[in-house]
Structure formats: structure tokens, C-alpha cells
Amino acid sequence: MKPALISTVTGEIPAHQLGPTLAHEHLYCDISVHSGKADNVMRDVPLLAEELAPFRRAGGGAIIELTPDGIGRDAPKLREISLASGVPIVSGIAFYQENVFPPWVYTASVERIADYFVMQLEEGDQGVRAGIIGEITSHNEPVINPHYQLNPPELKVFIAAAQAQKRTGYAISTHASLGRAGHAQLDVFEKAGADLSRVVIGHCDAHWHDDIALDLAYYLPILERGAYCEFDMIGWLDIASDEIRAERVAALVRLGHAAKITLSTDTCRLSQLHRHGGRGYDYVWYSFLPKLRKLGVTEAQIHAMLVEAPRTILGRV
Fold it and tell me: Cβ(25)–Cβ(64) under 8 Å?
């Protein structure tokens, strides 16, 4: 049997070579076109390569970089960062919220969008191939909405992502932030024939309740359908404390779901970098993992979240 391979920005590697991996990051992006904040412009290749040195020293092995088209995605620049830092990077291919879709997407058919995703996965940009479909985005809502539905333009892109997955076998990673859109996203993917076991629902930690049972009621149906829960806003303390995140991750681990959980920090601001006094890409290691250990999460369970889950998500035979 052939070994599973992972497409990085410098070429394919055997899946077993992938080390501890942050599953949802941004290294080269310009989210200012969406946010209006200059803090969201990260385009300094030497600086970003330098920022990955503490990540490597802490034990970091690889990064899944999920900047979509429309907010600064540049796969060849990611290749430069990878070569300069020595960190394997997997580039996603997707579109962000519909107000920053590339102009052609608004009128394109589902099939045309799927063709574009497949081209980026199989041929790439200047030969630099994507290794995952994502972060595929549906809109935020200010409060949790149990009746959340995707808008028609988003629906078209999600169906195209499912088609591209069926044609290529690559996994899908989503932006399911405010509004807790994960269930609605999975409904669309399931109807479109996607393999839900290769879908990662992002931003599971963008909302929380005082009663952990209400949060488990969101996470567990995602896991029961075979998809992954991603806790990727670690360090975003204005949204939730990391103690709250750790409690919820630990609860899911105790229920046997470690291999279906991924971790990350969704770094996308200059002010979050060490150079500017921020927490850096090594934050999970020096701040969050100690909290998990205090709650009884074992090294084997941490390995499942940081190594085994990303290998399974990214690996293709």
C-alpha cells in the first residue's frame, strides 16, 4: 500500500513526517480589505520567517495556512517563508466572506468554482499547490442562531468545495465563527455528497456558555457526524479565556475524541507577533498545553490533537 502524502508549498512529503501542526493560521495575508485594520497586513516575508523560529524551538513542526483568495493569499510567498524558516507549510485554497470574493466568483457556476479549486490543488500557483480546501467561509452573526443558514453565494462556494473534494480527495476546513455555523455547513456538505470525515469545522471556540453542557451540545453532533472540531482561537482572550477553551477540549478528550480535535491560534495581526510584543506562533506550547496537562490531558492525547489529526486530515493516498 502506498504511503499517504501531504502537499506542502515546497512539494509532497510522506504524512508520517508531519510533526506537531497548528491547523489554522495566517502567515501572509491582507485582511485589511475586510477589516479596515492596517494591523491585518502581514506581507513581510523575512519577518514572518523569523517569527517561526520560536515556534520551531517550542516543538512546532508544521503550519496549515488558510488565507483565502480575496484577502491576500499568495502561495509562492508561503513557499519563500517555508524555505527561509525550515517549517513545512500547507496552503489552503478558498474564498473568504462574500464582500471580498474575487469579482469572477459572483457570476461563476458551481462547476467553474470547483474547477478552480481542483486546479489549485493539482497544478497550483506558479507550481505551488494547495494542500487543503479552506478556509471556506460563511457569514458571521452577532448572536448564536439555531436557525442559521448560508447565504446563496456562500452556498454555491460550499457546494463547489464538496465537488472539488469528491474529485481530488482533499480535506475541507471551514470558517464557522460567530453564529456557530458548523451544523448548517455540515448539512450543505452532506447534501452535496462530501465526505464529512474529511471536514474540519473551524472556530468552535468563538462562542461559549457558562454551562459547558450547552457547548458540548454544539461540539458533539459535529463529531458524531464524523467531522473534526477545531479550537483555533487559542489566545484570543477578548472572546474567551483559555481556561474555558482548555476545559472544553479536556471534556471532549475525556469522551474519547482527541483524534478528532485540532488546535491553533488563528494569528492574523502584526500585533500578535513577537516582534510587536504579541504572543507569537509558539503560544500553544508555552501557554495552552500546560493548561491541558493540569486538567489531566495526557501527552498521548496531545499528540493525537497536534500530530495524528493533522496527518489524517492532510494525508492522501
Answer: yes
Q: Provide the pLDDT for residue 317.
A: 82
Q: Check: pTM over 0.85? Answer yes or no.
A: yes
Determine the 3-state secondary structure of 34 from DSSP.
helix
Q: What are phi and psi of 263, to 5 degrees?
A: -125, 145
C-alpha cell at 203: 472556530
Domains in the chain: how many in total? 1
- How many residues in total does the chain contain? 317
CA-CA distance, 263 to 284, in Å (whole number)?
Answer: 8
Mean pLDDT, rounded, for 213-222: 98
DSSP one-letter code for 39 = G
Cα–Cα distance, 233 to 245 (Å, whole number): 9
Judge whether residue 24 has pLDDT over 90. Answer: yes
In 127-248, DSSP assigns E strands to: 132-137, 172-175, 199-201, 228-231
Instruction: Give the chain's mean pLDDT.
Output: 97
Torsion of CA 30, 119, 88, 39, to 10 degrees: 0
Instruction: Name the residue with cell 468554482.
Output: 113
Handedness of CA 88, 94, 97, 100 (dihedral sign): positive
User: Which CATH number is 122's domain given?
Assistant: 3.20.20.140
Q: Which domain holds residue 169?
A: 5-314
DSSP conformational letter for 221: H
Rama region for 115: left / alpha / beta (φ>0; ψ in -120 to 50; rest): alpha
Q: How far apart are CA 262 and CA 211, in angstroms?
A: 22
Q: How far apart are CA 307 and CA 252, in angstroms?
A: 17
- CB burial string 79-93: b at 16+ within 10 A, e below: bbbbeebebbbbbbb
Q: Give the count of beta carbons closer than 10 Å to the beta carbon of residue 213.
A: 8
CA 245 to chain CA centroid, Å, is 17
Q: Is 306 exposed, middle or buried (0-12, 13-18, 19+ CB in 10 A)?
A: buried
SS3 track for 180-246: CCHHHHHHHHHHCCCCHHHEEECCCCCCCCCCHHHHHHHHHHHHHCCCEEEECCCCCCCCCCHHHHH
Phi (first) and psi of residue 125, to 5 degrees = -105, 115
